[in-house]
Structure formats: structure tokens, C-alpha cells
Amino acid sequence: MGCCDAPGLMPIETALTKILAEVKPLETVQTVSLSEAMGQVIAEDILSPINVPPFANSAMDGYALRSADLEKTDTLMMAGKSFAGIPFEGVCGEGQCIRIMTGAQMPEGADTVIMQEETEVDGDAIRFLIKPPANDNVRPIGDDVRLGDVVVAKGNRVTAREMPLLASLGIATVSVYRRPSVAFFSTGDELRSVGEPLEAGQIYDSNRYGIRALLEKFGCDVIDLGIIPDNPEKLREAFDEATKADVLVTSGGVSVGEADYTKDILDEQGEIGFWKIAMKPGKPFAFGTIKDTWFCGLPGNPVSAMLTLYQLVQPMIAKLAGHSQYQPPQRLKAKATTVFKKRPGRTDFQRGIYQISPEGQIEVATTGNQGSGAFSSMHQANCFVVLEQERGRVMPGEEVTIELFNHTMY
What values do phi and psi take at 205, rounded to 5? Predict the structure, then answer.
């Protein structure tokens, strides 16, 4: 085993359990307009104020009638028309039918709709070719949603699926939990912002862009504090500014034994646990508090930073946000079509490309270079291949577990 696979590493499941045991939901409730609710977490059950549909209506273009009349005859006289928004204002009497369009209100007295393709028309005399049961092709009151139904439960995040539902009920405002605020910055004299020329020994600050993208997808209000140089005074100022947020996320400077100002200041100002996690990439991780702000220290390598943010910080943010209906990314079994190199010791999250074979089998191949600095492999991937802690090399044809990227990766 190599140095990164030394015994005493914390399983990722243990790390996540520890984090979630400490973090409590913010529970600050706000009222927002429906147009502002997208991505927000619902703070109380939303009950339907109306029935949907609010009146019985036709599921077909055709004719509304009294089903009992067809026991005596197959021909009825058309007595009027009912259109969506312009209902028939009379009563459908014995021996009569009403021309009706899809979605139009059922006339009083009628209980059935026969589609126009099942009729023969001779002026106002309509001959019906079938005799359906009562209530055929009729959508009753409350067929979709009934008055008082829970339409969106507390703890759900509003998505594009909920927005039209709430609008269809005439709901103009909703109670939501306040979004968590998350401050983040990068540290290092070697870092340069995109657009600046690089000099010897310098690299572009990529982590901040990946971190911001994921945090925004997690539903956070983000505070980008930029690049902080390796200067104790500047770092202390950044930490002071960051503690105005609910959470602070940094990348780099949290490895055990690392001579870094970031770690020194964390030791001074916070109650931080510096963990060595049995995951690859992403062994060094720090978690704790600075004043009243949660702190998550990510590894410095780009893939490691994104992976730990995705696997450990994402569910933490969900709990902080009150998202009690949060579901972790979906995992499935797949057949490996390429070799996956691995040594026992850590749970390995390798970047993979899965597809469905013509035979319906889920298959997965490696993206190639799995180095923690090789971010092009994240761009190519559509899943993680989750290789168990004690598992070794995987050969083509073996079964593996894949974790599909959730919406935050797209």
C-alpha cells in the first residue's frame, strides 16, 4: 500500500454521518412570490385552495349527453354547444345532446361524453355508434387535485415540476426557508485569475469557478472573496469577512502536517477537525466551526475539491437548507467495459462514461486519466464509478457500482 492508503483513514460514510449529526437546519422562514420560489425549500406543507379541475369537464371533443337516453334510442338532437371558457348555459334534457370541446364544462344534466369519431351527423340529429357507461370521457371535479390536498410537502425544493402545479392552483406566494449563504475563497501566491498572463510557477485559479458553480446549483447564496495571498494578515481579514456567512468553503491548506497559514489560522480561530478520509481523490478534508460559521476545507487539487464538495458538502448544505426530502445521487449496477486501475485502501470515485447497450445492459468505461489534477476527465464523464474501499483492479466484464451525476453537475 502507498502513503495515501495508510491505515487509520476515516470511511467516507463515517465522515458524512459526523457532519450531518452536527449540522442543524437554519429554519428562518421567508415569504416569496411564486416567481422567486424556484430552487427554494418549502417551509410548510402547501395545501390546495381549490379543486382541479374546479368543474366537471370533457376529456374529448364530442357530444355530452345523458347515458340513460341511449338505452331507448341511438339518435339525439343537438341542443347547444359548450366550449372551453364559454359553457352551455342551459340543461341537457331528455333526448338531447350538447356539442362539447375538450376541457369545456359539462352541461347540467349530462353525465357522459362520446367522441365525435363515434357519431354520424345529420344536421342537428346526432346518431351514436356506441353506448358507453355513465361518466365515460368525463373529468370529475377534483380529478387531479382536491381542495385541501397537500400538493407540495414541507422540505421539498421547488423545481420546474412544481412551478406550474402551484401556478395552476392560483398560489401567488409561498413560505420558504432562507437560502444558506456560503463564502468561499482560494489561497496561494501561485494562483492567478483567468485572463491574466501566467509567469513561471503560476497556475490559474480553477477551483473557485467549480466551487461557485456547484454551490449555486446546491441552492446557496454565494459570496466570492476571490484569491487571498499567502499572507497571515490578509487571510485573517478574509476569515473575518467569511464568518458573516453560514458556511465557509476553502480549497487547499488543510493537509495534516502542511505548513500553511490557512491551517494555522484555523487552529487559532476555530474548532476544526482535520480528517484523513478513505476516499480517492480527496483524502484531506477539514470540518468544524469558526465563530458561528460552518467550515469545510477541501483538498487543493481540482478534482479532489469538486468531489469532496459534491459528496460531503452537498448533503450538508441540503440539511442546512431544510431540504428534508433530499435524495443522494442515484447508484446503479453496471458492467465494466474497460480496466479500472485501483489498489485496496480507499473508496475510489473514478470518472466514467455509462451507456445502455443494444441489449439493454448498463455499461461503463473509464474516461482515462484519473489523476486528481486531470479535470478534463470530469468534463468527459457522466457518472462516478464507485469502487469499494477494499477492492482492487477491475477487469472488463466485472460488475461495478456507478453513481449518476445529479442535476448539480449539469
Answer: -80, 95
CA distance from start to end of the chain = 36
CA 373, CA 28: separation in Å to the nearest integer? Answer: 39
Beta strand pairing call for 221-228 and 181-187 = parallel
pTM attached to this predicted model: 0.87
Mean pLDDT per segment of 10 residues, for the chain of length 410 residues?
Answer: 58 97 96 97 98 96 98 97 96 98 98 97 97 97 96 97 95 98 91 90 92 96 93 91 96 65 82 93 94 94 95 98 96 98 96 97 96 89 96 97 96
The answer to whether 143 touches 103, Cβ cutoff 8 Å, is no
- Cβ proximity of 96 and 76 under 8 Å: yes
Phi and psi at 367, nearest 5°, equal: -85, -5
At residue 237, what is the residue type? Answer: E
Rounded to whole angstroms, how far apart are CA atoms 324 and 26?
A: 12
Residue 363 to residues 119, 140, 384: CA-CA distances in angstroms?
52, 46, 13
Q: Which cell numbers in the block locate residue 341?
A: 486501475
